[in-house]
Specification:
Blueprint (H helix, E strand, L loop, with lengths): L3 H20 L19 E2 L11 E3 L2 E6 L6 H15 L3 E6 L10 E5 H11 L3 H8 L2 E3 L9 E5 H14 L9
Length: 175
């Protein structure tokens, strides 16, 4: 790949996808899907035209992956929300790479609105979410559009597994 920044971003997306698939038990020891046709497999999305659909599809989440030095989390969260809508998924989150750390240490950021919807879907209180998934809030000023909630990618993988288990009876198209 000619553009080193694009190559770095693609490598980060692939690492996140591979980590989630392994954590959720969707692949064998060689990284091959147990069931290649399972809609719950975590996949990198192919971009189709002008309407970006996010970097990774991990139903019911769209993950927008970022491997950059200087974070712009509120801007990225707005982008993830728009892309989730384009893809027809209910939740959009951002996965930001943590420098010189394993993939599992990457930071997953939720807008407060998305985090609240996920929390309610799981039937948890704010305190329980913080205890189970290591959630931390970032509050900057009075503009709630700039507030967000973060957790590690490892904790997000557990949350994703719990969400899928809780909503296993829901048809895949609406999860």
């Amino acid at each position: 790949m000619a553009n080193p920044n694009k190559a770095r971003g693609t490598a980060w997306e692939s690492s996140v996808r591979d980590f989630l698939n392994r954590f959720l038990g969707l692949v064998d020891e060689h990284g091959s899907f147990w069931d290649p046709y399972d809609g719950l497999n975590v996949r990198r999305a192919a971009q189709e035209g002008a309407r970006d659909v996010g970097d990774i599809h991990a139903a019911p989440f769209i993950l927008e992956c970022k491997d950059v030095k200087n974070p712009a989390v509120p801007t990225w969260l707005r982008q993830a929300t728009v892309e989730a809508g384009h893809a027809g998924f209910p939740y959009g989150v951002v996965v930001h790479k943590t420098r010189r750390a394993p993939v599992s240490s990457g930071r997953v950021h939720f807008s407060v609105a998305t985090w609240t919807r996920v929390r309610l879907a799981l039937g948890h209180t704010s305190r329980t979410m913080a205890e189970l998934y290591g959630c931390t809030a970032t509050v900057r000023g009075l503009d709630t559009g700039r507030w967000y909630v973060s957790m590690s990618l490892l904790d997000f993988a557990a949350l994703l597994g719990d969400y899928r288990t809780r909503h296993a009876g829901v048809p895949r198209a609406v999860r």
